[in-house]
Specification:
This protein folds into two domains: about 5-215 and about 395-410, 3-Layer(aba) Sandwich (Rossmann fold), CATH 3.40.50; about 215-395, Rossmann fold, CATH 3.40.50. It is built from 14 helices and 16 strands. The protein has helices spanning about 25-35, 85-110, 125-140, 155-160, 165-180, 190-200, 245-255, 275-280, 300-305, 325-330, 340-350, 360-375, 375-395, 395-410, and strands at about 10, 40-45, 50, 55, 65-70, 70-75, 120-125, 145-150, 185-190, 205-210, 230-235, 260-265, 290, 310, 335-340, 355. The protein starts with 7 loop residues before the first strand and ends with a helix.
């Protein structure tokens, strides 16, 4: 495809990462596939990694830099550092918006190889990233597409971090309505978010569901491991909105009452990690281990080293589209999914790739672990294979980009 026909796409996602970092690679994976199809893709992300809570991409004297990763351009931005979810994180969010707009406004002059955008996607892990995207879309007369991944303020209200009648909730709701109104298209990751928007009066024709996906090339087909100790792996944020405490309670139940030798390994970090580690010590658990997060490219190896995979989710508006769920399916391992989201439960039950249990129910989780433990290796392999087949049919990156591309070109 020649240069004149090439589409120039900019994506604004504060927490986007390349495969050498821990975190979700949704936009990198989409970008890599779009580059194959003749697009120029540029992602604006923070150099400060939200999982490790440290600057990983920029030197102290750098405010930003451009990096090309397998054809995908990353603009790494300097943002205000933080360690806990206090006022410093708010400044971190605001600093991303300001720097994204400032650098985006003059990027094509500073780096002539980066062409002005024809389409801009603003992804709302927080809404200020999408606001910067809208402002730049207006400046460049580009199409603005809003991607609603987290609903602010609704997600904060659901987690009881914000009152529904507070001034901040009203401001965030007004901003969300503004962005939805001015977007040409709204991308959501699940049917639950679609229902939320339809209830708010947005037309269904404006909304498109494009779930999270997985790069299946990174996951070779392997047999179930034969570990000396049955190993269950959790990867992701160590935070209480994941409802992780019941996992420690389940480990204690099994340690005290069942003839089972197993290890529960948490790969990840988060603001609640110290408390979770302290709770582990308080319970005198010898079958629980915490390990630091690993880069995205290392995740397949770690997942496939386990006998079973644990996914814990307590936010219903992520219904059916957890990044980790896609990785787990691709890894071909039995999944124990703690969730109340109907779509997730339906996938687990229809594919028979594991077990779905309700959140905050330690006895049910202990029972699920024991059931997978008592399954034969052949039965576990069959569970994993069914999950992998579902991922290939519904969540492979080329399948999802086939859904995304018409939104960019219509």
């Amino acid at each position: 495809m020649n240069q004149i026909n090439k589409k120039h796409l900019w994506i604004f996602n504060h927490y986007a990462v390349a495969p050498d970092l821990p975190g979700g690679t949704r936009h990198f994976d989409f970008g890599k596939e779009l580059v194959k199809r003749g697009y120029q893709v540029t992602i604006f992300a923070a150099g400060f990694n939200y999982l490790l809570r440290q600057e990983l991409k920029l030197a102290s004297h750098e405010n930003w830099k451009l990096e090309n990763v397998v054809g995908v351009n990353f603009v790494w931005l300097k943002t205000f550092p933080y360690q806990t979810n206090n006022w410093r994180r708010i400044i971190n969010i605001v600093s991303y918006m300001i720097r994204a707009y400032r650098i985006g406004s003059r990027l094509s002059r500073l780096q002539p190889e980066i062409k002005p955008p024809q389409v801009i996607i603003g992804s709302t892990v927080h809404p200020l990233a999408a606001l910067a995207a809208w402002l730049l879309a207006k400046k460049f007369r580009a199409k603005f597409i809003l991607e609603l991944r987290d609903l602010w303020p609704q997600s904060l209200i659901d987690m009881k971090q914000l009152r529904a009648d507070s001034v901040m909730a009203k401001i965030l709701r007004h901003l969300e309505n503004f962005l939805c109104k001015h977007a040409t298209r709204i991308i959501v990751l699940s049917s639950a978010t679609t229902s939320f928007l339809l209830d708010r009066g947005y037309p269904s024709a404006k909304i498109s569901v494009i779930s999270n996906g997985v790069d299946l090339d990174q996951y070779p087909r392997t047999r179930q491991p034969e570990n000396q100790i049955f190993t269950i792996l959790y990867t992701g944020a160590l935070s209480f909105d994941k409802a992780l405490l019941p996992a420690l309670e389940a480990a204690k139940i099994l340690e005290q009452s069942a003839d089972i030798k197993f290890k529960l390994i948490f790969f990840g970090s988060g603001v609640d990690q110290p408390r979770l580690e302290q709770e582990t010590r308080n319970r005198q658990l010898t079958n629980v281990e915490f390990r630091p997060p690993v880069s995205k490219k290392e995740i397949p190896r770690e997942l496939q080293s386990a006998d079973a995979l644990l996914l814990m989710q307590d936010k219903i508006l992520h219904d059916g589209s957890s990044n980790k769920f896609m990785d787990y399916l691709a890894a071909s391992r039995p999944i124990i999914f703690v969730t109340h989201a109907e779509t997730n439960i339906k996938i687990i039950q229809q594919t028979n790739c594991g077990l779905a249990i309700p959140p905050r129910d330690a006895p049910a989780l202990a029972k699920a672990i024991l059931k997978i433990y008592n399954s034969s290796i052949a039965e576990r392999e069959q569970m994993g294979a069914r999950g992998r087949a579902y991922a290939e049919a519904h969540h492979a990156i080329p399948v999802l980009v086939d859904q995304l591309e018409p939104l960019l070109t219509d």
